[in-house]
Amino acid sequence: MMRLAFIALALLLFTGCHNIYQLRRAAVKGDPVAQYEYGRRFLTGQKGAVRSYNRAFHWFSKAAENKEPRAMAAIGLCYERGLGVKRSLSKARTWYAAAVDEGNDNACQTLVQMEARAGNLSGALHWLERMADDDSIPAQLILAHMHLNGTARNASTAEGIRYL
Question: What is the pLDDT of residues 17-29, one digit of tens each?
Fold first, then answer.
């Protein structure tokens, strides 16, 4: 029984090593999706990779050079939390905004939260409006509520109805 468990564990480890080897090959060849995924594995320390924030940032940067929106948001996260780089909220915002420009809706949501936490309600509203314009139903509902109860800048019933 013990031998069978050992064989099963060995097969599982071999499969994980083989997969990360293939992922590394694709990343080195310049595949931006593979570069992002390889960096994500270093960020989390999962699926055959040892956690290394520096290596994660390196691979996210490679993928971001190729306009991979998830990698751009991941760089924003690294700057926001100081993972593999010196913490910088301004650089985090820049990278999150770049990710939004490439179509990453999650980065836009993160910017809303960052601006709200910083007390910059105008900035939070800007990103919330951007989400609403990109057909985010939760953002549209929040903005409708804000316009209808008078808490949005230049609140108007017509805008509230439009967002609804």
Answer: 448 889 999 999 9
Say how far apart CA 97 and CA 78 lie, in whole Å: 14
Residue type, 104: N
pTM of the model: 0.79
User: Whole-angstrom Cα distance, residue 78 to residue 92?
Assistant: 8
Rounded Cα–Cα distance for residues 156 and 119 (Å): 23
Q: Spell out the residues 6+ positions from residue 27 whose beta carbon is closer than 8 angstroms to its own.
A: 34, 35, 37, 38, 59, 62
Q: Where are the alpha helices (DSSP H) in the chain?
A: 2-28, 32-44, 53-65, 69-81, 89-101, 105-117, 121-133, 137-149, 157-163
The answer to whether 40 and 24 are in contact (CB under 8 A) is no
pLDDT tens profile 95-137? 999 999 998 989 988 999 999 899 998 888 889 888 888 888 8
Element holding 135 (H helix, E strand): none
